[in-house]
């Protein structure tokens, strides 16, 4: 099956068009003023109009209140909301009820206890984005370009629908997919030339690396199945 790819932190028409041309399943827009990827809702809405129906439009917010969400949802008309702060399961339920949109709940992972924090959201969040814990000193909850130990995901129930995130780039996505078997991945700084500046060549390299990994995994699984006959 084709891996879903979310490109996050899009800010320009060139990057948005390229993401979709390369086959991105999701396009993420960041609404967090401290981020180098922050975008005004109206600007994001204009960019999203270029690709509506071709990739899912995701509004990424951090502990946003309803006033902020009202403005973002009305300007962007997203397909999904990504809640990337400390939103509780109750808050996720409220956001879903108020906006009638599916929610991706982002969780930051460093160890097994962090992964267990997924439990109260199961059946509430529509999808999870498993990102690395921000490094000490970072004032961004995401987009930090760091990975977590992917082997932790061995303990995750197979029914959990998640996107693998955190420090993914063309050099490590093959190993990340081989270790986790993730069906969906997310990248931001790994396809940038500077914070907030998407690099079209790096985006292309990322998609090529995903395609190579898919071929390798099919070959590996085929060889394993052959051996067990
Ligand atoms: O990317 C940001 O600047 C950001 C800021 C505030 C909240 C979330 C943010 N990013 C969310 C994402 O979905 C990123 O793609 C994810 O954190 C992975 O980023 P990276 O490690 O740079 O690939």
TrEMBL record:
CDD domains assigned: PRAI (cd00405)
Top EC category: isomerase
Signal peptide feature range: none
Molecular function GO labels: phosphoribosylanthranilate isomerase activity
Highest taxon listed in the record's lineage: Bacteria
Xref: InterPro entries: Aldolase_TIM (IPR013785), PRAI_dom (IPR001240), RibuloseP-bd_barrel (IPR011060), TrpF_fam (IPR044643)
Catalytic activity: N-(5-phospho-beta-D-ribosyl)anthranilate = 1-(2-carboxyphenylamino)-1-deoxy-D-ribulose 5-phosphate
Keyword list, A-Z: Amino-acid biosynthesis, Aromatic amino acid biosynthesis, Isomerase, Tryptophan biosynthesis
Pfam families tied to this protein: PRAI
EC number: 5.3.1.24
Gene3D superfamilies assigned to the protein according to its UniProt record, in alphabetical order: Aldolase class I
Pathway note: Amino-acid biosynthesis; L-tryptophan biosynthesis; L-tryptophan from chorismate: step 3/5
Domain called N-(5'phosphoribosyl) anthranilate isomerase (PRAI): residue spans: 5-208
NCBIfam families: PRK01222.1-1 (NF002295)
Family per similarity comment: Belongs to the TrpF family.
Protein name, as recorded: N-(5'-phosphoribosyl)anthranilate isomerase
Organism of derivation: Rhizobium herbae
């Amino acid at each position: 099956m084709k891996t879903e790819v979310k490109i996050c932190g899009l800010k320009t028409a060139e990057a948005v068009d390229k993401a979709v041309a390369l086959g991105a399943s999701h396009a993420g827009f960041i609404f967090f003023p401290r981020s180098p990827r922050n975008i005004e809702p109206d600007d994001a809405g204009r960019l999203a109009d270029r690709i509506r129906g071709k990739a899912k439009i995701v509004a990424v917010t951090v502990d946003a209140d309803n006033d902020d969400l009202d403005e973002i949802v009305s300007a962007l008309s997203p397909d999904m909301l990504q809640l990337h702060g400390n939103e509780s399961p109750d808050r996720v339920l409220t956001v879903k009820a108020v906006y009638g949109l599916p929610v991706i709940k982002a969780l930051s992972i460093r160890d097994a206890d962090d992964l267990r924090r997924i439990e109260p959201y199961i059946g509430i969040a529509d999808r999870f984005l498993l990102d690395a814990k921000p490094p000490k000193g970072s004032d961004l909850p995401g987009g930090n370009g760091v990975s977590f130990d992917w082997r932790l995901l061995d303990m995750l129930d197979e029914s959990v629908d998640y996107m693998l995130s955190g420090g993914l780039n063309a050099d490590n996505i093959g190993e990340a997919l081989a270790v986790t078997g993730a069906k969906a991945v997310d990248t931001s700084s790994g396809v940038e030339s500077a914070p907030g500046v998407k690099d079209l060549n790096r985006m292309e390299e990322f998609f090529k690396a995903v395609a190579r990994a898919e071929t390798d995994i099919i070959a590996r699984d085929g060889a394993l199945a052959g051996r067990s006959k």
